[in-house]
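Structure first, sequence second, as always.
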């Protein structure tokens, strides 16, 4: 018995809330990411699902565990010149340049519609200085309808010669502590995978007050058209995502989950339910799905539909029982 909506469930009105009795044989898909309870572990990843509302005619948004909206900056950003995407073996490169409508337009134009859904809405936040991160959070703090913040720290720190915030434990500590100070809502910190020691970065974020870590963002990469000898992207380099990165990010999730006590949200190349299980077994409490939305805009909804069946088949009654169950004793 629980308080969560399950597909095969019996609803009873009780004490002003809806009490759910699960039918024997049904699967408990709920997970907790710190204080935040999600109806299932499947979350749409930032930058691959617009501001959520654009997908409402394609996916039942209420069925998703959560939606992370496109990264929000203090002022609107026009982004990078085209082409912005290019296909690579088992993945793709993107150089969007963090195009977005800006935090004020998000609050005025997107959040009112998003608020009407039951799914957890997580605001992805970024800036070029610590003050900009704080400025975005301050504006969001006055708005209703958000479940958490996700700090994208894979951005150049202009006050420190353009080095990525996420590549240096001290800079991670500074930006996370400042955001923590400004935010009353849960604070997730999305790590960059382009680092030598993810455990050190994960610990710096935890020590500065992060409630959860999202592991991880895209890998810096390049692709060249040999005929023109130019980059296939409008910028020289881009971020690699999709199934190609899954084994690499899986290791980062495993290492991060061993380094900190706060929950980990895993993402990188998830396409199938088995991929979700893999991430949860190495320690992720929930997962995000990004590039898969490009080949099938219904990918997140389809995964929610199939995850329960897959759990039943595998005799998993509570999906959270999978978390951190890796047998690390291989010879
Ligand atoms: C086109 C595109 C835009 C993205 N924009 C953002 C963004 O604004 N903020 C962010 O934190 N991550 C962004 N990401 C990274 C994804 O959220 C995700 O971390 C990454 O793509 C790896 O997951 P995947 O392999 O499932 O796509 C973007 C990725 C893509 C492909």
């Amino acid at each position: 018995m629980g308080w969560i909506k399950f597909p095969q469930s019996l609803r009873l009105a009780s004490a002003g809330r809806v009490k759910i009795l699960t039918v024997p044989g049904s699967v408990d898909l709920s997970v907790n990411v710190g204080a935040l309870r999600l109806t299932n572990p499947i979350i749409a990843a930032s930058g691959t699902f617009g501001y959520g509302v654009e997908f409402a005619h394609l996916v039942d948004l209420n069925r998703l565990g959560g939606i992370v909206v496109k990264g929000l900056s203090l002022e609107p950003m026009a982004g990078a010149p085209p082409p912005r995407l290019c296909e690579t073996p088992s993945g793709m490169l993107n150089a969007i340049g963090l195009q977005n409508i800006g935090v004020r337009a998000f609050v005025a134009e997107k959040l009112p519609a998003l608020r009407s859904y039951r799914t957890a809405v997580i605001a992805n936040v970024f800036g070029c200085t610590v003050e900009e991160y704080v400025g975005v959070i301050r504006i969001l703090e006055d708005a209703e309808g958000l479940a958490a913040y996700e700090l994208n720290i894979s951005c150049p720190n202009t006050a420190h010669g353009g080095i990525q915030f996420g590549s240096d434990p001290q800079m991670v500590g500074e930006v996370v502590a400042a955001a923590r100070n400004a935010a009353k809502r849960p604070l997730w910190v999305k790590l960059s995978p382009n680092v030598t020691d993810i455990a050190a970065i994960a610990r710096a974020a935890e020590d500065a007050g992060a409630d959860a870590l999202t592991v991880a963002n895209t890998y810096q990469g390049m692709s060249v058209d040999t005929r023109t000898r130019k980059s296939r992207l409008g910028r020289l380099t881009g971020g690699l995502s999709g199934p190609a990165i899954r084994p690499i990010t899986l290791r980062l999730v495993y290492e991060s989950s061993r380094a900190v006590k706060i929950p980990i949200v895993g993402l990188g190349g998830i396409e199938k339910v088995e991929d979700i299980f893999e991430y949860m077994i190495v320690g992720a409490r929930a997962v995000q799905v990004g590039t898969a939305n490009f080949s099938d805009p219904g990918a997140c909804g389809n995964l929610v539909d199939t995850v329960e069946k897959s759990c039943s088949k595998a005799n998993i009654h509570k999906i959270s029982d999978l978390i951190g169950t890796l047998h690390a004793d291989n010879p």
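Margin note: The chain has one domain: 27-322.
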